[in-house]
Amino acid sequence: MIEPILEVKSLSKRYGDFYANRNVDLKVMADTVHAVIGPNGAGKTTLFNCLAGAVATSDGHIFFEENEITGEAEHARPVLGIGRSFQITSLFPGLSVLENLRLAGQALKPAQGLVFWHPVPHDCPDIFHAHEVLERMGMQHLAQKEAETLSHGQQRMLEIGMALMARPRLLLLDEPTSGMGVDDIPQVISLIKKLREICTILLIEHNVGLVAEVCDRVTVLQNGEVIADGTPGEVAANEKVKLAYLGEAL
Amino acid sequence: MNMFLFEVMNGVALGMIYFLMAAGLTIIFGMMNFVNFAHGALYAVGAYLCFQVIDWSGNFWLGLIVAPILVGLLALVLERTLIRHLYSFDHPTQILITMGVMLVIREVILLIWGTVPKPVSPPDILTGVMVMGDFVYPYYRMFVIAVTAIIGLGLWLMLERTRFGIMIRAGSENSKMVSLLGLNSNLLFSVTFVLGVALAGLGGALISPIRGADAFMGVEALGIAFVVVVIGGMGSFPGALAGALVVGLVQSLSAGFWPEGTNIMIYAVMAMIILLRPNGLFGRT
Amino acid sequence: MNKHTPISIHFIAVAVLACVLPVALQSPILAAEVLIFALAAIGCNLLLGYTGLLPFGQALFFGAGAYAASLSAIHWQSSMLPCLLFAILAGGLLAIAVGYLSIRRQGIYFVMLTLAFGQLGYFIAYLAEGITGGEDGLLDVPRAALDLWIVPAISLDSDWAFYGWVALVFVVSFISLQRLVDSPLGSVLQAIKQNEQRAIAIGYQVRFYKIAVFAFSGIVTALAGALYAMLLNFAPLSNIDIETSEVIIFMCVLGGLGSLYGSIVGAGVYLVASEMLSDIWPRWMLLLGLLMIFVMLFARGGLWLGLKLLWQGVKGYGQDKKVKKVEVSHD
Q1: Which of A60, A76, A125, C214 could bridge across to C95 with cysteines, CB 3.0–4.6 Å?
Q2: What average pLDDT does range C261-281 have in this prediction?
C-alpha cells in the first residue's frame, strides 16, 4: 500500500468548449480496490476511457507503475498490464465462451496472432488459462456455449473474465453490476473479493452497497472534477458529496 | 470562348441531374443512415416509365409528371415490404441487399421493355436550339437546368421552412431526436424514402430525351451519385448541390481535352476527400 | 470453436471435388472456370465473410493478376511458376496498398474507397494502352508451360492438362487458406468481424490484421486472374471493371459467407447457371437477385448452408430424427 500503481496528474478531456474532465488527480495504490463514483454526467466513463486509451486525453499525464502511458495506444495497454471491462456488455457474441477468453489471452502475444499456417492448438496455454478463469468465476459448465446465449449476469461475468485473461496488474471495471438483477450482485461482490488477491482494481459503480463493502478508497467526481477522495466512510460524511448527490436526487 | 460557355452549360445541366440523384441518396442516408444501392436502378425505371407514358399518351409533360410519381409509389411498396427492415443493419448488409434489389429491378426492366434502349424525344416546343449571337444551346438542356433549379429551390424551402423539413433535418442530425420529439418515425422514414427515390425517378425522366432509356444507365449514375454525395458530405443537402455541380463541370470541361482522364480525376478526388476530409466539403464534423 | 475439421478431411474433400468436377460438367474448360472463380470468391470471403469488410474493388486484384501473368508470358516467355509469382506479387502489393488506405474508414466510406481504387485501376489500365492493350485487352496470351527445371517442361496447351494444373493450384490454395481461417490469425479475424471495438480493447492491433487479410485476399484473387487469362489466352479490360467485382461478391454471398466451401458452391452455381440458363431464359439474373436478398435476410450461410441442411435432413430422415441445430459459421 505504499506505491501508487496508477497515478493521474491533472488530466483534462475537452470536447470543444466542454470539459468532460478537468484537472483530475488520482492515485490508485497497489493491491487496493478503488472506486470512482459520482452523479450521472460527472465524467467517470470519460476518465475510464482515457485510462484505457479509448479516447485521447487533452491535457495531463497518466503513469502506470511509474511509466508514463498517456500516449500509448488502446491496443497496447492490455499488454502493459491494464485490463478493462465494458459498461455495456461487449463480447464476441457468435463465439463460444472459451473462444472469447482464449482470444483475450492470445492478444497479449502479438506474434501468435501472426500464425496463419496451422490451426489453433487444443492444448495451448491460453486454453488452460481460460479454464482457470472460468473456474474462478464458477462458469466451467458454460465453456462451449455461444456468448450470445448466456444470461445477462453471465455475460457480465464473462466480460470481467476477458479482462482477466490479460493477467492484468490493474483491472478497470466499468460498472460491473450494470443492468444486473439484485440476485446477481452478491456473485460480483464475491468475485471482486477474490480478484483483489491477484490484482489492483479500479471500478466505476453506482451500487452504493457494493462500493461500501469492497472498496478501500473512493474518489468522487462531479462535473468532471474531483470533489472528494478518501475511505468510504470519509467520503460518505463529506458535505460536498452529500450536496452533489442531493442535487441529483432532486 | 463560346465553346467554353457551351461546355459550362452542359456541365451545369449534367450536374443538376446528378444533383437530383444525389439529393435523394443523401436525405435517405442522413435520415435513416441507409445506403441505397438500388437508387440507380430506380432512376432507370423513371426513364422507362417516362418513355412508356409518352408512348401511350403522346404527351411528354404527362410522362415527366407521372413517371416520378409512379417511381415514388414503387418506392413506397419497396419501403413497406423490405427496406424498412434494413435500417438497423450495418452498411455492408444494406449494400448487399439493395444490390439484389438493383439486379431484380434491372432484369424486370429488361423483361418488360427488352434489351434495346428506348429513345425518347423532347416535346416540340423544346426541340431545336437557342441562338444568341454566336452562342448556340439546345432548348431542352436549358429546360433541364431550369426545372432542376426550381425543384432544388423547392426542396431547399421545404427543408428550411416546413415542419416536415425541420423533422428531416432533425432526423439527419440525430435519428434518435425524431422519436424523442414524439414523431411518428415510421411514417417519416417512409415519406423520406419515397421522396428521395422519386427525385431519382424525376432525374431519369428528365434525362431520357438526352440519353434515352437504358436498363444499364443506373450503374454509372449510381457511381457518380455516390461520388457526389461523398464529396459534398453524406447527409448534406447543400453539399449534394455543390458536389453535383463540381462533378458535372469537371466532367464536361475535361471532355474537351482529356475525356478518358475525367473519371480518373473524379474517383481520385473522391478517394482523397474520404481520406483527408471524411465528412466531405459540406458535411458536419 | 476449437474443434476444427482435420486438414486431411478437407484435402480429401477438395481433391475428390477437383477430380469429379470436369466429368460432371462434361467440360474441362467450364470446370477450370469454376475453380478459378471459386478462388476469387474465396478471396472476397476472407474479407467479407471472415472479417466483415465489404470490398468493392476485387476486380483490381483479379485484373492485376491477369495482366502481370500475361505480360511476363508474352514479353519474357516466362514459364508457369514465374508467371504466377508475378501475379501474386502484383495482387499482394496492390492489396496491401488498397487495404492500408481503405481501412482508415468504415462502413460506406470503406466501400467507396475500395470502389474508387478499383475504378482508378480500371481507367489506368484503359489509358495505358501500350502495356495493357487498353480497350482491346491483351491478346494472344500463351499458356505458359510448366517448367520445374528438374524434369522436361510440361505443356499445358491441351484443356485437360491445363485443368489439371488449375486443379492442383486450387487444391493447394484451398488447403492453405482453410488452415489460415482455422489458425490463430483466422480467429482474430473472426473476433474483428464479431466486435471490432472489443478486439482492439483486448489488445489486437486491428489495422494490422485487416491489412494482412487484404494481402491474402489480393494474392488469391490475383492467382485466379492469372489462371483465367491463361485459360482464355486473353486478358480483357473487363477483368478489372466494376461488374467483375460485383460478380465476385455475388458468388461469395450466394455460396455462403464464412465458409470456403460456400465460395466453391457460389462460383459453381453462378457459372453453371449462366452457362445453362442464359440461352433458355436470359433473365435468369432475376432469380439471382431474389436469392441474394433472401440469403442476406434469412440465411447468411447461403447455398452451402442449404446443402448442409438438406444433407442433415436426409440423414435425420434416415435416423428418424429431427435436425435440431446446424452449425452455420464454421467448417
Answers
A1: C214
A2: 90
Q: Is the pLDDT of residue A87 over 60?
A: yes
Say yes or no to pLDDT of C321 above 60.
no
For residue B23, which of B216, B195, B164 has the smallest C-alpha distance?
A: B195
Domain CATH for C71: 1.10.3470
Is C158 a domain residue?
Answer: yes
Domain extent, residue A174, equals: 4-249
For residues C61-89, average pLDDT: 91
- If contacts are CB pairs under 8 Å, which of residues 105-124 in chain C contact chain A? none
Do B and A make contact via 3 or more CB pairs under 8 A? The reply is no
Q: Does C128 touch chain B (CB under 8 A)?
A: no
- Do B and C make contact via 3 or more CB pairs under 8 A? The reply is yes
Structural domains of chain A, count = 1
Parse chain B into domains and list their residue ranges. 2-218
Is C152 touching A (CB cutoff 8 A)? no
Partner-chain contact C286 B85, CB within 8 Å: no
Residue C157 gets the label, from left (phi > 0), alpha (psi -120 to 50) or beta, of alpha
B1: confidence class by pLDDT, cuts 50, 70, 90: low
> What does the pLDDT read at residue C131?
87
Cα–Cα–Cα angle for B241, B246, B252, rounded to 5 degrees: 125
CATH number at residue A206: 3.40.50.300
Please report where in the chains the cell 458468388 appears, as a residue: C251
CB-based contact B97:B235 (threshold 8 Å): no
Q: Which residue in C164, C140, C168, C138 sits closest to C67, CA to CA?
A: C138
Residue C122 within a domain: yes
Q: Which pLDDT score is estimated for C216? A: 96
The percent of residues in chain C predicted with pLDDT above 90, rounded, is 45
Pick the residue from chain C with its C-alpha nearest to B97: C293
Determine whether the interchain pair C188/A74 forms a contact, defined as Cβ–Cβ distance below 8 Å: no
Could you give the CA distance from residue B40 to residue B56 in angstroms, rounded to a whole number? 25
Output b/e per residue, C108-142; b: 16+ Cβ within 10 A: bbbbbbbbbbbbbbbbebbeeeeebbeeebbeebe
Count of structural domains within chain C: 1
Q: How close, in Å, is residue C208 to chain A by CA atoms? A: 10
Residues A92, C4: C-beta atoms closer than 8 Å: no
**Can you tell me the ipTM of this complex?**
0.86
Range of the domain at C229: 7-318
Mutate to test the interface with C, among B98, B275, B279 (most CBs of C within 10 A): B275
